[in-house]
Structure formats: structure tokens, C-alpha cells
Write a structure and sequence with these properties.
This protein has eleven helices and ten strands. By secondary structure, the chain is an alpha/beta fold. Strands 6-2-1-7-8-10-9 form a seven-stranded mixed beta sheet. Strands 3-5-4 form a three-stranded antiparallel beta sheet. β9 and β10 form a beta hairpin. α3 packs across α4 and α5 crosses α6. The radius of gyration is 21 Å and the shape is globular. The structure holds S-adenosylmethionine.
């Protein structure tokens, strides 16, 4: 049998390409050569599961109904995640960023810290952020902590709201953290209500410019890698505009914005890079931006 897979029965290359373009146009996710096989396999499976004969039937249904469109999209999302996925990022968050923002915002009234986990998948990332803040002694109950966690995938968000985890996902959670922040249930470990209250989950497509208010930090890890260069630039610019001066952007390890024309200050700490939005004063005096620019 030939190694190369041709189009699925009833699914032409042209139809596949139309579906690919529809998904990219609406979500920004692009399926390049390296993910072409994954894409065609998933679309073919979906076509069979729906009992549809031809790709045109699927396209018609997706264009007509958002439910049909989302049903296919769900199967195309890569939602791999885990608690404290990059320990060095959380260490930098705890030891560098939180103390800095604590000092900066301590005298503000109300004393609020707003964080956006953009592309939060099944919730491990926003809960890791919440645990780090809860374990940081400097953030007592007198702080108003708001974590907005958004994703385009509805199924992942449902799981995130339940907050029940098991197995590999919990691999980097310490015994102390398990005891302090989780309750054992029949299906795994459930995040305690006190922590769940800090996180608001919402379905949101990053390809649409939805207003979320000003943020002190944005975590958008392992999401930009799926977008085209153009979309990446637009999104990074939007993150810049959304952040408070002195706020931070956290990206995944393989995501670099070094060639983009935004004015983030890149801070290299061990094996991670943090992106800080300079203050107005720092922008006027570039020598104040000591640690380099992205
Ligand atoms: C690989 S997961 C990353 C999860 C988490 N941030 C982490 O690093 O562990 C990528 C997530 O981005 C979401 N995503 C992809 N395109 C999106 C879009 N256009 N709008 C919102 N979320 C999107 C996917 O549904 C998925 O949950």
C-alpha cells in the first residue's frame, strides 16, 4: 500500500482545502504541511461519524450552522496541557513577577490583580496560576484576584469548570499543593471551591477582538504556534494594548516574538523569556529598559 494518503472517499483535495480555509479564517488556526495528515484524517472521521456522503455536504452544513461548524472544530483542536507545564515559567512568575506587581499595586484602591489565560484548554493553566498566587504569602485575602480563562473549545471549558483532574496532568503538583488545593473525589482530584472562585471561564475566539479590559498579566502559552505569522503579529499587538504598563506576557517555550515590531522588553530568566510592557516613562527613556527588547 502506498504511504501517501489520498483524499478520503467523498472528500476531494479541493473540499479539504475549503474546510481548511474556513477554519483558518474563523479561528486563525492554520494546518500547514506538517499537520495536513492530522487534518485530513480528522475531517474524514467526522464525515463518517456524521453519515455524510461528500465534503460539500459537510461544508454546506458548517456554513449554515454554528453547531455543525463547532462540532468539526472540536476534533481539530490540540488541547494538550498539564499543571505547571513549564516549572521555570511559574518560578519566574512567583519569584519575579508577583513581587514586582505586589509593590506596584499595593496602594491602589481597589487592590486588584487581573490575569488572562488565553487558550486555557481544560483549565490546568489558570488553576496553576491561581495556586501560585494562593501560595504566595504576599497576596492575602485583601487582594481582589481575577483570572479570566478563555478558549475556543467548549468541551475543554466544561472540563475546566468541573476542575477534576487525574494522572499525568497532575504530575508537577506537589503533595503539599494537592493537600491544600484539591479534594479527592471518585474521578480524581477536584480543585477546591476557594481556588475555583478566582477563575472565570468563558468561550472566546482569539481571532475576534473581544474586549476583556486591562490585564496585569497574560498567559498565552502554546497557542500562537498554531497561527499564521500575520495572525500572530495581530494577536501579540492586541496583548500589548491590553496589558497595563509594567504588565507581563507569558508565552510557550517555542514561541518567540523577537522579530515583531512590538515594544515588549524581553527578560531572560534561566530557560524562559518573559515579555514586559514598558511604562510610559521607560518608553521615553530607552536606557530604563535595561534587560533588552523583544
Ligand atoms: C495546546 S493548548 C495550550 C493550553 C495551555 N495554554 C498550555 O500551554 O498548557 C492550545 C489551546 O488553544 C486553544 N485555541 C486554539 N485556537 C484558538 C482560538 N482561535 N481562540 C481561542 N482558543 C484557541 C485550543 O482550543 C487549545 O485549548
Amino acid at each position: 500500500m502506498s504511504e501517501r494518503q489520498g483524499p478520503a472517499h467523498g472528500l476531494s483535495e479541493h473540499e479539504l482545502s475549503e474546510i481548511r480555509m474556513l477554519i483558518e479564517e474563523r479561528t486563525g488556526i492554520c494546518f500547514d504541511e506538517s499537520r495536513a495528515r492530522f487534518f485530513s484524517t480528522r475531517v474524514k472521521e467526522h464525515l463518517c461519524a456524521k453519515g455524510l456522503e461528500r465534503g460539500t455536504d459537510l461544508l454546506r452544513a458548517m456554513r449554515k450552522s454554528n453547531i455543525e461548524y463547532e462540532a468539526l472544530l472540536e476534533g481539530l483542536l490540540t488541547q494538550e496541557t498539564s499543571f505547571f507545564r513549564y516549572p521555570s515559567v511559574y518560578e519566574a512568575f512567583e519569584k519575579r513577577v508577583l513581587p514586582e506587581l505586589h509593590v506596584k499595586k499595593f496602594w491602589k484602591n481597589p487592590r486588584t490583580l487581573r490575569i488572562w489565560s488565553a487558550g486555557c484548554s481544560t483549565g490546568e493553566e489558570p488553576y496553576s496560576i491561581a495556586i501560585t498566587i494562593a501560595d504566595s504569602l504576599s497576596f492575602s485575602d485583601s487582594w481582589n484576584v481575577e483570572i479570566l480563562a478563555t478558549d475556543v473549545g467548549r468541551l475543554a471549558l466544561k472540563q475546566a469548570e468541573r476542575g477534576v483532574y487525574s494522572g499525568r496532568s497532575l504530575g508537577s503538583v506537589s503533595q503539599e499543593q494537592l493537600a491544600a488545593h484539591f479534594t479527592k473525589t471518585q474521578n480524581g482530584q477536584q480543585v477546591k471551591p476557594r481556588l475555583r472562585k478566582l477563575v472565570t471561564f468563558a468561550q472566546m475566539n482569539l481571532a475576534s477582538a473581544v474586549y476583556v479590559g486591562r490585564m496585569d498579566m497574560i498567559f498565552c502559552m502554546n497557542v500562537l504556534i498554531y497561527f499564521s505569522e500575520e495572525r500572530r503579529r495581530a494577536l501579540v499587538q492586541r496583548f500589548y494594548d491590553t496589558l497595563e504598563p509594567g504588565g507581563y506576557l507569558f508565552l510557550g517555550h517555542s514561541e518567540s516574538i523577537s522579530k515583531m515590531p512590538v515594544k515588549f522588553q524581553a527578560i531572560v530568566l534561566n530557560d524562559c523569556i518573559l515579555y514586559r510592557k514598558p511604562t510610559a516613562e521607560e518608553l521615553q527613556k530607552p536606557e530604563l529598559v535595561a534587560e533588552g527588547r523583544a
